[in-house]
Amino acid sequence: MTNFQILAVVIQLTVYLLAPALVLKLEKRSRFIQVISPVLVCYLAGIVMANQDFLPVSLPISMMVRNVTVALAIPLLLFSVDLIGWLRLSRVTVISFVLCVVSVMITSTIGHFIFADTFEESAKIAGMLVGVYTGGTPNMNAIGTALKIKPEMFIVLESVDMVMGATYLLFLFTLGPRLLAKILPPFQKAGNADVKEEEADGKAAVIWSHVGLSFLLTALIVAAAGGLSLLLPEGMQEAGAILLITTFAIAASMKKRVRALKGSQESGMYVLLIFCVAVGSAAKFDTLVHTSPAIFGYIGFVMLGAIALHVTLAAILRLDRDTVIITSTAGIYGPAFVGPVVSVLKNKEVLISGLASGLVGYSVGNYLGLALAWALG
């Protein structure tokens, strides 16, 4: 490598590490960032980085950072999951999120059979879409890594998902709540919106010793999963590692002391933001321009079809509007977008259930996505 190439790589890694910190700092002062969320801003920062001509962006470095951050983010985000507690939430919340998951599984399966002749890796795409629309982008990339999908398909799926996701988000921020109010009954307030401020924001006070313990436990989980995955057949090692990391993290979260670690979720979100910048930095505009329109059709069918089916089933069961919207947000985007959507709904009572559903989505997304990909493949 030349000195210039080394400098470019150093700058690239520095941007990955520091851009999320800058975005989080600006979030406290910027209503715009608060509304669209730091996740989307970090994606956009990465896209700007990818499409400038001053310094080259190394795709192998981007892929390496994405793979590392996926492995680290999964445990950090799952340590705060209380699966048993989630099942004790409002029955409507659990039913609505289950309907969301079932809807994505159905439309992904149908989408595979519609587009199987168009895309050689259609079954893998279906599995990745289940991951992203029940959990989030880390699930999609974890599943894609496990299934060894082609690197260029990674970039195309992430780029198109960002376009489609932004469209639905705009709908939720504008006409969505009013239109869905004509189909779904109103939320019945229980008058218990007086939660602690840190809970209302979905955040807890960070204790740095706890952050260190969270990373230490994460490193042990990743190392153990990586080591055990080497015992599996060669073609199953990546998938095995992802499933083992997920399983070990969920097992750890069953311990109350692990769930009580202050800062594990915030650390996971910071790692996720690094991941978002890395993902965006691989999304060149010419990739989208030359992308087959069929992939827009595939992703659009799965995402929009799942949303429509979820709302239809919810209407049949008379589930309320706010719970349906917030569980749909948790499934399609993960917990990061729950807060902004709650502010649009002006109903803090659904915040905790939305955050919990999003974290549960992170938990089940890898299992469901890989299971569907293997079943269809």
Explain how this protein is built.
- With 377 residues, this protein is mostly helical.
- It has 19 helices and no strands.
- It has helices at 3-27, 31-50, 59-78, 83-87, 91-115, 122-134, 137-147, 151-173, 176-181, 197-200, 208-229, 237-253, 256-259, 264-280, 285-289, 293-316, 321-333, 338-345, 351-376.
- The longest helix has 26 residues, at 351-376.
- The protein is globular and about 65 Å long.
- The model is unreliable at 192-200 (pLDDT under 50).
Rg measurement, Å: 20 Å
Through-space gap between termini: 40 Å
Sketch the major β-sheet.
none
Tell me, rounded to a whole number, the average pLDDT.
86
Low-confidence stretches: 192-200
H/E series:
HHHHHHHHHHHHHHHHHHH
Number of strands: 0
Helix content: over 70%
- How many helical stretches? 19
Q: Give the structural class.
A: mainly alpha
Molecular shape: globular
Share in β-strands: under 5%
Sequence-ordered SSE layout with sheet pairings:
Layout: H1 3-27, H2 31-50, H3 59-78, H4 83-87, H5 91-115, H6 122-134, H7 137-147, H8 151-173, H9 176-181, H10 197-200, H11 208-229, H12 237-253, H13 256-259, H14 264-280, H15 285-289, H16 293-316, H17 321-333, H18 338-345, H19 351-376
